[in-house]
Automatic annotation (TrEMBL):
GO terms for molecular function: 3-dehydroquinate dehydratase activity; shikimate 3-dehydrogenase (NADP+) activity. This is Shikimate dehydrogenase substrate binding N-terminal domain-containing protein. It comes from Eucalyptus grandis (Flooded gum). SUPFAM superfamilies: Aldolase (SSF51569), Aminoacid dehydrogenase-like, N-terminal domain (SSF53223), NAD(P)-binding Rossmann-fold domains (SSF51735). CDD domains: DHQase_I. PANTHER family: BIFUNCTIONAL 3-DEHYDROQUINATE DEHYDRATASE_SHIKIMATE DEHYDROGENASE, CHLOROPLASTIC, SHIKIMATE DEHYDROGENASE.
Length: 440
């Protein structure tokens, strides 16, 4: 069982055997978008997609400059060692094709006849397309009916209604792509994904943008039909797509299952953090069923309230949320409370309560002490080398408070230099630091 927010989500995914012999814990496919100006370049990318570990390829026909439908589609299908998904996206749905719909839909019908495994048809023209094929769809070809929203993510009710409309339009597979204005938007898409498992129609539910990254990784946990992974960083067919290398090597995508615990680093900005690289490798080495993600969060209280199940088990906390996170925890370690900042949040599995800690001061002060002891060949005996030293902290935020606390605890004389000027900010800063340093 898995859940987001206060909604219980039931997931099921039978394990599969991977080529390496390891157990694949989900059936979610990885699709590589193939985008190029020429068929020749697309053929090269098809080979790269196969060697990268993809399950299928999305051939973006709208990217081709000169298209000879029968010849080019036949060449691409024959050249692909993987199942093919053909997409011919018009500009009005975020693609590059800027012409009449009739030849575009005829090209998709031709792809079906020539042996495509999947084709993508926009909801707006799905009824027209299905009427035109008059039931002559090859048995092996599945029709994905898609809807893209580049403005926002609708309400849960509107999303459910949208799924129903797509199913009614004759979809073999439902695809919805929305835009994340806040990371909490993704929870509604997880609900849609899990709910779809009750029906017989698979769902692809992606949330575009950096805030929607978790939808592209955790769809493996919640039962999504596929996710997209690009061959190159930044060369994407929709905003926020990770590379297939990151999906497989950084996030250990094949090992994510219904019982996988979710961890991550909460921050804004956050994409630069190396934490997922460290923790996901550690999880893999230890055989721990967890995944660690970048979490671009605007409001930490809203995030923690939305993703409140025990599946979301713990978080690192970085700028600018360390101080705000203190108020979000059910219990705060006395040291973290004295510092006034939290950089580590753990959710207790028995009752989902949040516990806040601060490890910044331990890690940073220990590293500084080790550096100062270097001339003593690593001898750590006796008083701290910070004892009696003048310790200047530049910045009075969460990390600065932790460093000041740790230095004072080690006997240093602490001076704080902050960039914010003004009587009210000075008074607030002075009062906080007085409480913090006295408590040492």
């Amino acid at each position: 069982m898995a859940s987001t927010g206060n909604i219980l989500l039931a997931t099921s995914s039978a394990p599969h055997e991977m080529e390496s012999g390891a157990v694949r814990k989900n059936s979610t496919l990885i699709c590589v978008p193939v985008m190029a100006d020429s068929v020749e370049e697309m053929v090269i990318q098809l080979d790269k997609a196969k060697s990268s570990g993809a399950d299928l390829v999305e051939i973006r026909v709208d990217g081709l400059k000169n298209l000879s439908p029968h010849e080019d589609l036949k060449t691409l299908i024959k050249a692909s060692a993987l199942p093919t998904l053909f997409t011919y996206r018009p500009k009005w749905e975020g693609g590059q094709y800027d012409g009449d719909d009739k030849p575009r839909l005829e090209t998709l019908r031709l792809a079906m006849e020539l042996g495509a495994d999947y084709i993508d048809v926009e909801l707006k023209v799905a009824s027209e397309f299905n009427a035109s094929i008059q039931g002559r769809k090859p048995e092996k070809c599945k029709v994905i009916v898609s809807s893209h929203n580049y403005e926002n993510t609708p309400s849960a009710e509107d999303l459910s209604n949208l799924v129903a409309r797509i199913q009614a339009a004759g979809a073999d597979i439902v695809k919805i792509a929305t835009t994340a204005l806040d990371i909490t938007d993704v929870a509604r898409m997880f609900h849609i994904t899990v709910h779809s498992q009750v029906s017989s129609v698979p769902v692809i539910a992606m949330v575009m943008g950096e805030r929607g990254l978790i939808s592209r990784v955790l769809c493996a946990k919640f039962g999504g039909f596929l996710t997209f992974g690009t061959l190159e960083s930044g060369v994407v067919s929709a905003p926020g797509q990770p590379t297939i290398k990151d999906l497989l090597d950084l996030y250990n995508f094949r090992s994510i299952g219904p019982d996988t615990k979710v961890f991550g680093i909460i921050g804004k900005p956050v994409g630069h953090s190396k934490s997922p690289l460290l923790y996901n490798q550690a999880f893999k080495s230890a055989g721990f069923d967890g995944v660690f993600l970048h979490l671009l969060v605007d409001d930490v209280a809203s995030f923690l309230q939305t993703y409140s199940s025990t599946d979301f088990a713990g978080f690192s906390c970085t700028i600018p949320h360390k101080e705000a996170a203190v108020k979000c925890c059910d219990e705060v370690d006395p040291v973290a409370k004295s510092i006034g900042a939290v950089n580590c949040i753990i959710r207790r599995q028995s009752d989902a309560k949040l516990f806040g800690y601060n490890t910044d001061y331990v890690g940073a002060i220990s590293a500084i002490e080790d550096g100062l002891r270097g001339s003593q060949n690593g001898n750590s005996a006796g008083a701290s080398p910070l004892n009696g030293k003048l310790f200047v902290v530049i910045g009075a935020g969460g990390a600065g408070k932790a460093l000041g606390y740790g230095a004072k605890e080690k006997g240093a004389r602490v001076v704080i230099a902050n960039r914010t000027y003004g009587e009210s900010s000075q008074r607030a800063c002075r009062d906080h630091w007085r409480r913090c340093l006295i408590s040492c």
